[in-house]
Specification:
It is a single chain. The protein is an alpha+beta fold and 157 residues long. The protein contains five helices and three strands, in the order H-H-H-H-E-E-E-H. The protein has helices at 8-11, 17-33, 37-64, 71-98, 130-156, and strands spanning 101-108, 112-119, 122-129. A hairpin with a 3-residue loop joins strand 1 (101-108) and strand 2 (112-119).
């Protein structure tokens, strides 16, 4: 917001219409460079996917060392979920690169994890609380297992 916006005296001054159009175009271009809500969601997902992959890997290691009868089935399901996570990660990286957005880890505090987002010439700091991360990871894992269940169901019909 410039100093002139919100200043009622500015409206009474004579200005050329081309200057008004240039100013409005400049403001519109600046908003085009800012990160959108959809892109912010993509960044959040890109941040969370490595955590999800790590959790699935740990579970797979635990299953490998167990004496469960369904060990092979669990391992196959876990590997399928990991492949899906890798596909999603690759797609998000590709999409964000096309949109000229980069994400770098910044710092971690007790309950917050910060990342730097470089978006079309702008820099922004993005933070996630651990509780939000846990919730989102749980939702994503549920989604992956539901998708796998649907695939298995269709295959067994």
């Amino acid at each position: 917001m410039s100093k002139l916006e919100g200043n009622e005296r500015w409206k009474t001054k004579m200005i050329m219409t081309e200057h008004v159009e240039q100013y409005e175009d400049q403001q519109h271009q600046n908003t085009d460079k800012m990160i959108t809500i959809e892109e912010r969601t993509m960044v959040r997902d890109l941040i969370l996917l490595p955590y999800i992959d790590t959790m699935v890997s740990k579970s797979l290691k635990e299953i490998e060392h167990s004496s469960n009868i369904l060990k092979r089935a669990y391992l196959m399901a876990g590997k399928a979920i990991q492949r899906r996570i890798m596909q999603d990660t690759y797609q998000l990286q590709k999409e964000l690169k096309q949109r000229n957005i980069r994400v770098l880890a910044d710092e971690q505090e007790e309950f917050l994890v910060y990342y730097k987002i470089f978006c079309r010439g702008y820099q922004e700091r993005f933070g996630l609380t651990r509780d939000v991360m846990r919730t989102e990871i749980s939702l994503r894992l549920t989604k992956y297992t539901t998708e796998l269940g649907a695939i298995l169901k269709d295959t067994l019909k």
